[in-house]
Specification:
The protein is an alpha/beta fold and 465 residues long. The chain has three domains: 32-155, Rossmann fold (3-Layer(aba) Sandwich), CATH 3.40.50.720; 159-243 and 300-454, Dihydrodipicolinate Reductase, domain 2, CATH 3.30.360.10; 244-286, no CATH class. It contains 16 helices and 15 strands. It has helices at residues 3-14, 43-57, 71-81, 91-98, 112-121, 136-149, 163-173, 193-199, 205-208, 211-214, 216-227, 273-278, 283-286, 357-366, 403-413, 427-446; strands spanning 34-39, 61-67, 87-88, 102-105, 125-128, 153-155, 180-190, 231-239, 304-311, 316-325, 329-336, 339-345, 376-383, 388-394, 450-451. The radius of gyration is 22 Å and the shape is globular. The model is unreliable at 1-30 (pLDDT under 50).
């Protein structure tokens, strides 16, 4: 399915009135291009927020600066993106030199707050990758800076815009199964995608905040948005029982590892030209190893997580995240007074899905999809007394359930597009998603239930509105 075809579908059949006019109907702007800078030029930054943005919106935006602590990585990012802008290793120097309209933050998670706050102080718009931050202290700094500047922070929660999640939101908003009382939500990372987090900086909690922040904030935001309420209480269990020190052998990095013949998780980065140019060729500059051993003993995040969430409107949620599944996907069920809604994605049996699990995440991140995949996903809506319907939802091969395209259109092409289901996410959305992860981490560490009010002066809302 082509990008424009997908936009048309999501605007009419799948997403209701999310988009009231197709993107191709917008004329080229006669005004000066919006001036963007990117801080953090890793794969996600230089790819999705760099190259992809220029490919799709180069008529209305331009990059005027790239910043990274690693000058070699920034230089290659410039080449990869196809831009002629200057590169910097000092953020303040960049901001003073180029005076951008918008700062896109894609650095290590634990440093997001630093650049968000500084960008606001310079008077620039801010778009940050999820998670917005990794602890409650940094979160308050962001919220205080936003309030002082009067400039709203945007958070890149792309899953909200996916076709199937939009349809679920519509069903819940219409009270199709009555008052929702509980939700079961389970996310599965396959052994290729899940293992990747443990090779990278994400394996240290002082950088990622654990996957309860880096990964699960996606999912917590979806819950907050679909349930339309704020969390008030969190209890969690988590362990590191598969990766890290749990293996009987370990090496320095995958390249040249003496154990590669017997390690099922061996990854040959030398076969990935982009990874080689972006990371390996620049290791000497900052010491960051992209193909690190996922059995190294300093990994201190959880690889198995189960979270119970109580919401202000009385809904209870049971959530889990698995990082070593044979397949990539998720299941969700909403239990209501009058029925139940079930949905899933990526579950391989019974579906014509032949995309190789090893390449699934790579394709999503690159926006370069190949192989066969279902063009419809199913939502089952069952009434308590007998009847049920199976809804066939058009899906796209676009990243994050088709949400990537619509998110970027909303940010860059048509920020004023109709948004009746409130897909666009701001700082409060980012904070509430983070607060669940922070509370869950604290619950695991301290062995107790954690109330959201312990962490913030934000008052949970019964209805987000």
């Amino acid at each position: 399915m082509k990008r424009r075809d997908f936009i048309s579908i999501t605007g009419t059949t799948a997403a209701g009135t999310l988009i009231t006019a197709p993107v191709q109907g917008f004329a080229k702007s006669s005004a000066a291009k919006k001036r963007l800078v990117l801080v953090g030029t890793g794969d996600r930054g230089s790819g999705f927020w760099g190259k992809t943005v220029l490919q799709n919106y180069g008529d209305i935006v331009e990059f005027v600066g790239l910043c990274d602590i690693n000058p070699g990585r920034a230089a290659y990012a410039k080449e990869r993106m196809g831009t002629n802008c200057p590169v910097f290793t000092d953020f303040d120097e960049m901001m003073k030199a180029v005076k951008p309209d918008m700062v896109i933050v894609t650095t290590v998670d634990a440093t997001h707050h630093h650049f968000i706050v500084k960008a606001l102080e310079y008077g620039a718009e801010v778009l940050t990758e999820k998670p917005m931050t990794t602890d409650e202290v940094k979160m308050k700094q962001i919220l205080d800076a936003e309030k002082k500047s009067g400039i709203p922070v945007k958070v890149g929660f792309n899953y909200r815009y996916g076709t199937i999640f939009t349809e679920l939101k519509k069903l819940l908003a219409s009270h199709r199964v009555g008052t929702v009382t509980s939700v079961d939500f389970h996310w599965y990372l396959n052994v290729f995608h899940g293992a990747a987090y443990f090779r990278r900086w994400h394996g240290q909690r002082d950088k990622s905040g654990t996957l309860l922040l880096h990964k699960a904030s996606h999912h917590f935001d979806l819950l907050n948005w679909m349930i339309d309420s704020d969390p008030v209480e969190v209890s969690a269990l988590g362990m590191l029982e598969h990766y890290g020190k749990n293996n009987s052998f370990r090496g320095g990095k995958c390249r040249g590892c003496q154990h590669k013949e017997k390690c099922k998780f061996f990854w040959d980065i030398t076969k990935e030209p982009n990874m080689m140019k972006l990371y390996v060729e620049n290791e000497h500059q900052d010491g960051y190893i992209r193909d690190n051993c996922l059995w190294r003993e300093n990994i201190d995040i959880f690889d198995k997580m189960a979270v119970q969430i109580k919401y202000a409107n009385g809904v209870s949620v049971s959530y889990s995240l698995t990082t070593y599944s044979p397949y990539e996907g998720w299941r969700i069920a909403f239990n209501g007074m009058a029925g139940r809604i079930d949905a899933s994605e990526g579950i391989p049996w019974g579906k014509a899905n032949s995309i190789d699990q090893a390449n699934l995440h790579t394709q999503e991140m690159s926006q370069n999809f190949s192989g066969s995949a279902p063009d419809r996903e199913e939502i089952m809506v069952a009434d308590n007394f007998g009847s049920y319907e199976i809804m066939k939802i058009p899906v796209s091969k676009g990243g994050h359930g088709g949400g990537d395209v619509v998110l970027q259109d909303k940010i860059f092409r048509n920020p004023n597009m109709a948004d009746p289901y409130k897909h666009a996410a701001g700082s409060r959305d980012g904070a509430m998603a983070c607060l669940i992860g922070i509370a869950a981490r604290k619950s695991i560490d301290e062995g107790r239930t954690v109330k959201i009010e312990e962490l913030t002066d934000l008052i949970p809302s019964v209805n987000r509105g």
